[in-house]
Every structure is written in structure tokens, then in C-alpha cells.
Amino acid sequence: MKRSSPVILVSEDEYGKFDESTNSILVKGKMHHLGISRVIEPGDELIVSGKSFIVSDFSPMYFGRVIRRNTQIISEIDASYIIMRCGLRPGMDILEVGVGSGNMSSYILYALNGKGTLTVVERDEDNLKKAMDNLSEFYDIGNVRTSRSDIADFISDQMYDAVIADIPDPWNHVQKIASMMKPGSVATFYLPNFDQSEKTVLSLSASGMHHLETVELMKRRILVREGATRPASDDLTHTAFITFAIKKSGMVYRI
Predict the structure, then answer these.
(1) How confident is the model over 146-193, as pLDDT tens digits?
(2) N or C: which terminal CB in the chain sees fewer CB atoms within 10 Å?
(3) Which residue numbers belong to the known binding site?
(4) Beta strand 160-165 with 181-191: parallel, antiparallel or unpaired?
(5) Do 92 and 204 have their domain in common?
(6) What pLDDT does 236 receive?
(7) Single pTM value for the model
(8) What's the pLDDT score for residue 166?
(9) Which domain, by its residues, includes 52?
(10) Residues contributing to the annotated binding site for S-adenosyl-L-methionine
(11) What's the number of domains the chain is made of?
């Protein structure tokens, strides 16, 4: 983590961030100065324009709510499952293909906890710059390596402990991705529709990978109000289909 001081303001449906350099908070694009002598700590309550916020330590689930977003982000429920399914932990070397606004990168860096590396391959220069700017607000990105290129043109002698790909046509690149994975490592493919998922899964076996599962994860918020508790009506239900595959070593034993 880059900072140890509290940086996030949370409420039931809105978020803000704390700017340590100016001792100010930013909520919905508006800056509010706290004053030079004001010190805030986790658990403190701040009333901003009549709305109550609680000060919280940073967590990657807040990242996508307070950054400048230039693309649709991977949701916190999807990102958390990806981290667990891939077994990401400190000391690993991770390859991320397609960075967007950096939200998935935030979860990866949080899991690495400063130990290991994250290599980001992104062909869009603007996306890459914005993602790195966003990440540098909350992390020391000294262990992040970037390559502005298409995965087809990316060259690396590194063998990765996990690969996370958020690109529209992974079936065209699974052979390349598999060639950079350690045996037993897991690849994740994040795709919005059935056709893309089907093409990706059908391409795996020819690349030395074994399909583990394809899932769709849904989060249902409940609005708790006295005498009127009910599900939220404005939630986004479908985010994406997520395919997981494990790299085979090539060794087969019959028992």
C-alpha cells in the first residue's frame, strides 16, 4: 500500500476520497477542505453537504468508485472471485492483458502486497496512462511493468503464475497466453457474451489448457428500510462470463 492514513469516505451509496497533501476530501467531484489542524481517523463520521460518511481504510473494492473511469470496470464480486480462483498471493508474477481503468490491477496489487510483479499489456495508450495514474494514487507501482502493445506482439521470457485477460477475442491468443504460463497456473478470460465464452472454451484444449469452469456471478443488494426492506431495483445483474483454465504440464500418468 502507498499510504497508511485513511483515504476513503464511505456511505450506503456514495464514496469519496481523502487527499493527504491538501487535507481535503473529494466527493462527487467537489473538493472540501478540512483545515490544517483537522486529523481524521477510520471510524470518524463526516457530514458532507448534509450526507453522512464514515472514514475507512483503503480497500480495492472502493477503488473503482473513486477513480476516473474511462471504461467499464470489472466488478468487485468478479474481481474477488478471480483473485481466489487463481490463488493470487504475495511473491507471484501476474500477467494482465487489457487494463481498462485499472480496477482489476488494484485487486491484484492488493493481493501481492508489494511482493511479486504485475505485468500489464494494454494496446490503448490512453487507457494505460489513466490506469497507471489511478493506481499510483493508492499504491507504490514500482513492481508494475507495462507494455503498450497487443498481446499478439508482446514478447517476454517471463513465465507467469497467473494470467487475467480482458480482451474481446482471447480464442485467437490462447496459444500465446498458454506459452507464457507455468504448468498448473490458472488463466482467466473475462467476456460479456455467450458466443465469446464458447469460442474461448473450445480453443483451450489445443493450447494445452484444461477448462475448469465458466461462471456468471450476481450480487443482489437489499435496501433495508424500516417497514419497507426490499431488493434494490437499479442493480446491474449481468456483468460478464468468466472462464477459468489451468495450464497442463504435458505429463500423463495412468493409475
Answers:
(1) 999 999 999 999 999 999 999 999 999 999 999 999 999 999 999 999
(2) C
(3) 122, 150, 166
(4) parallel
(5) yes
(6) 66
(7) 0.89
(8) 96
(9) 8-58
(10) 122, 150, 166
(11) 2
